[in-house]
Specification:
Blueprint (H helix, E strand, L loop, with lengths): L1 H7 L12 E4 L7 E5 L30 H12 L3 E4 L21 E2 L2 E2 L8 H28 L5 E8 L2 E2 L2 E2 L4 E4 L6 H12 L4 E3 L12 H7 L5 E7 L6 H18 L4
Parallel strand pairs: 2-3, 2-6, 6-11, 9-10
Antiparallel strand pairs: 1-3, 4-5, 7-8, 9-11
Helix pairs in contact: 2-6, 4-6
């Protein structure tokens, strides 16, 4: 731990390491704008393995398994820009406010994260400055540009969740998450319940709030644009083929919801 903390004090990312943002179809013409905050599980070299095993670093605690595959296919189907974040949420959770306790989790799903124990305020701020803010500032700039150009925007964020959490099974296959949005989210929820036999959660297995989330409250609700967070159970999107089927289903739901917006 002493070596890890010593290097962290001199910065999180080395000069050759990639920017946290990775984009796809950046200039696409769609009204949809897609975000995937937990797309990657990359760990900065300065943090080593964060004290975790390789197996732990492939689990859901490190990233949203399958979410990037769904988001990329959805981006292609809708011809929509996709902004993804490549570093593990164990480094910093890019769907949390930087001052939230879970921004740099000391424990995740019962697993202790050694590199995050007793972090100083400066170390937390470095992670925000080098990963969180560069990603979200890029999203904000893109949304500002769309607004300046008079373009419509419908914000969609793609996530995945585990079928079992702390020993408790989750029945939902997909969750439609929202807070203040009264247009896109309810329309998507209604479409999935009317047109599929899936177990659909309304703000399940998570609920969106200002305290627990960032993308929907800040990029969507504060701007007053239609927005929805979609959670898919990760055992259903483990292959590229399955992810593509889910992306197609989500695209159909989004397009069918447009007349209601």
């Amino acid at each position: 731990m002493s070596d890890l903390n010593e290097t962290a004090l001199h910065g999180v990312l080395k000069a050759h390491e990639p920017h946290p943002l990775e984009t796809f179809n950046e200039s696409a013409a769609s009204d949809y704008f897609i975000i995937c905050e937990h797309a990657g599980r990359r760990i900065p070299e300065n943090l080593g393995t964060m004290g975790l095993s390789e197996k732990d670093l492939t689990r859901h605690i490190a990233w949203d398994i399958g979410a990037l595959s769904v988001a990329r296919t959805l981006s292609d189907i809708l011809n929509a820009p996709l902004y993804t974040q490549r570093y593990s949420r164990l480094v910093c959770d890019c769907n949390r406010q930087p001052d939230a306790e879970t921004f740099t989790p000391e424990t995740s799903e019962g697993t202790v994260v050694p590199a995050n124990r007793t972090l100083s305020p400066d170390e937390r701020r470095m992670r925000a400055d080098e990963i969180f803010w560069p990603f979200h500032n890029a999203v904000s700039q893109a949304l500002d540009k769309r607004e300046q150009e008079g373009r419509k925007t419908r914000l969609v964020t793609i996530h995945s969740f585990t079928p079992v959490f702390l020993g408790k099974s989750r029945p939902w296959e997909i969750g439609i998450l929202f807070n203040r949005d009264k247009s896109l989210s309810p329309a998507m929820l209604e479409w999935f319940r009317r047109n599929t036999d899936l177990c659909v959660g309304s703000n399940q297995p998570y609920a969106v709030s200002d305290a627990t989330d960032y993308a929907v409250p800040v990029h969507g609700e504060r701007r007053g644009i239609p927005c929805v967070e979609i959670e898919i159970r990760n055992d259903l999107i483990g292959s590229e083929e399955d992810a593509a089927e889910w992306a197609d289903l989500i695209a159909r739901g989004l397009v069918a919801s447009e007349p209601l917006l």
